Amino acid sequence: MTASIASALGSAAPLPFLDEVVAIIAAAALIAYLSQRVGLVPIVGFLVAGVAIGPMGVGLVRDRALVDAAAEVGIILLLFTIGLEFSLERLARIQRLIFLGGGLQVGLTVGLVTGLLALFGVGWRAGVFTGCLAALSSTAIVLKLLQDRREINSEPGQVAVGILLFQDLAVVAMVMLVPLLGGQATGAGEVLWALAKAGGIVALVLVVARRGMPPVLEVVARTCSSEIFLLTVIAVCFGTAWLSSIAGVSVSLGAFLAGLVVSESRFRHYALSEILPLRILFSAVFFVSVGMLLDLGFLVRHPFVVAGVLLALLGVKTLATAASVRALGLPAGAALSTGLLLAQVGEFSFVLERSGREMGLFPAGVADGGGQAFIAATVVLMAVTPFLAQLGARFALARPAAAAALPGG
After folding, report:
1. How far apart are the C-alpha atoms of 196 and 218, rounded to whole Å?
2. Percent of the chain scoring above 90 in pLDDT
3. How far is it, in rounded angstroms, from Cα 278 to Cα 5?
């Protein structure tokens, strides 16, 4: 019997995705080590690793569905841990940053991009669509940088968090806007219903955070079982993200709200320590997956096109964000620092670009190569974000106590 078991084990075929999982984790670990040795931010290394091992590189990883699923988990866990470090009182203090600062930033970016493209003869529908793509910043990258540098509570950090939260809310309206821009009938009632559902989910989560979750975690904690506590916290995290996705809200916002739910209990620090190892693993996979989107061949064939798109995005995003922050009454240095920090384009823009393509919408209205130019410029811009953040820090030094002085409303 032992021999038959050994024979069966020996003849068992490897899992179909195991080689790709090993390639991703091994590449991430190796790049993280090399990045630390040369003093490079690991995020940049992970993006480079994705380019190297992805289908556009040496082709070690070709199953995009597997990588995308793991990357989505990484985003959820990352935003959940950020939510754990917040509280409802702290969120209320920056509500002006969220709605006024975020609203100005999104509106100005869409307006500037639409106007700029109109000068080159691009129609308003393609212009607004491209503006929506450009308006979103990378929640995962920015919050990871702020967390690693311990600048979440700095002046630019708090403003960036407020604007990012509004962008995640704005995603709901943008998704509903794509069919309308593509010429398909999407009534105002449909848009309002989607926004109402999103608002209802947010309100429900906040009520649960205040009333329901602290007693539940107290009961779980009395079992003195770290396994049960971790499973409960994971269930809260993914359950809230799932409810948010049903209502049309981005899973990023749902995961952040889930972190807020747990943060209202006295076990927030214990939950953070339990979830941290998982977050590190899956967030690394997320950054690797973004690097896989870059087509090196297109970049080599059209370097000036990509450089032009990159510089245009950098200029428009920095200007729009800095102007929005300045309108809140913050110093010019903090405004420019926040503008550079949020100058990249976000991960959800890839999803929005794909949705637009199905409706006949393309970045800058260019069907042939417009999407690849946008993706290439976006990935490169993500990679240089740590350096842009360092440049911004020269204009406004991070002050942990500055959050108390912010115009939170």
Report:
1. 32
2. 20
3. 33
